[in-house]
From TrEMBL:
It comes from Thermodesulfatator atlanticus. This is Peptidase zinc-dependent. Its cofactor is Zn(2+). Keywords: Hydrolase, Metal-binding, Metalloprotease, Protease, Zinc. It comes from the Bacteria. Signal peptide: none annotated.
Length: 186
């Protein structure tokens, strides 16, 4: 069986030492081919000067265009994003294109504790797992501890776990069959 390809694409200046750790943790969580693309420039047509933000859907289209033949593509950017329904979003996912974009800059808001970089990293990892879950067809979850729970604030993101609840795992199995590319935690 072919392993799915997951491409992580830095957009703009979204790079840092956390990127290497992220690639390793994704490789541990998924039996998939995890690839890191070279950073790409911001797609300037996606910028809305009135909002001073980038339109997430245009970045997603751009990511799918530059990604080529991969199963999933996740863009990480340091700019502010907006969507059709919301003036500010942290993550936007497109199920049919199997693409997502995450504003890592927004995940740095309200960092606290002795290890603020760890708080940032955990937020990023949860957002990537949630985006991949949506790309595999999972809807939002009502369990506030599940990674698929739709956080309305960074505080809610901090409180939820970085794993799928049993109900979401079952939904994944029913949608895509056995999960040969998702390592079972335990």
């Amino acid at each position: 069986m072919r392993r799915p390809r997951i491409l992580i694409v830095p957009v703009g200046k979204a790079v840092g030492p956390w990127l290497e750790r992220l690639m390793g943790q994704l490789a541990e969580a998924f039996i998939a081919q995890i690839e890191l693309a070279k950073p790409i420039p911001y797609p300037l047509p996606a910028f809305n000067p009135a909002r001073k933000r980038f339109f997430a859907h245009l970045i997603i289209d751009y990511l799918r265009e530059v990604a080529g033949n991969v199963d999933f593509v996740v863009g990480l950017t340091d700019v502010e994003l907006y969507s059709v329904h919301c003036n500010s979003v942290i993550c936007e996912t497109h199920f049919q294109a199997r693409s997502a974009v995450i504003s890592v800059g927004r995940l740095r808001d309200f960092l606290f504790g002795e290890k603020p970089e760890e708080v940032f990293y955990q937020r990023l990892y949860k957002e990537i797992l949630r985006a991949l879950g949506h790309m595999m067809g999972l809807p939002p979850c009502s369990n506030p501890h599940c990674v698929m729970y739709p956080s309305l604030s960074l505080y809610e993101t901090d409180l939820k776990s970085s794993s799928f609840c049993p109900e979401c795992l079952l939904k994944l199995r029913l949608r895509v069959g056995p999960l040969p590319f998702l390592r079972e935690s335990g």
